[in-house]
Amino acid sequence: MRTKMNFQILEEKLGIRVKNKEVFKTAFTHRSYLNEHPSYDLPSNERLEFLGDAVLQLISSEYLYNNYPNSEGDLTNFRSALVCTESLAEEAERLGLGDYLLLSKGEESSGGREREYILANTFEAVLGAIFLQEGINVCREFVSKELLYKTDNIIQKKDYKDPKSEFQEIAQEKLGVTPTYTVLDSWGPDHQKSFKVGVYLGREEYGIGEGLSKQKAQQEAATKALDKLKSI
Fold it and tell me: What's the CA gap between 78 and 80, in Å, rounded?
């Protein structure tokens, strides 16, 4: 199990000097690791993730407000696409943050270092650590370089139109009905749960999706439902 970290390489990746090693080590400590190491003297990264999420919401909102003259609804969609699990995981993977994670043996063997939601949470936890050590201005520089650079591409490709929103919009326009989502099944341990979700218009099922979160399963169900609805 990895308990030592090469902070020199991490500093090169982040472009930041790691002064508070405990805070940054905490940022890479997954809760599963604590279950197997009760004598480990640092907490999990969940509190840092909470802090980093708030910092990320502020910085991304400020950036979009200052650079795009769109409506509040558009800006909300742009931000959602930027800070969604898939987007943050993509940047965390690019930065190699998964290499530094402290995981339980079970999480390690099941591919935890590559799991989207763990990588996304780690990105936020690292941002929380940067905020505690360096403050908001350095966080702005980091987020601008490592995340906000892809805003124009997201807008041009219309990646901000998530399947759930698009399905609801078309369903209401064509049929005057608002979709409902129902969890049909779930399985796996609490830290690695999978879900099966169905989406319905009235009593009619339009799509079923599976994912490692309810949101992921809903998005997959909506994607399938869109194909069916557009053919009507």
Answer: 6
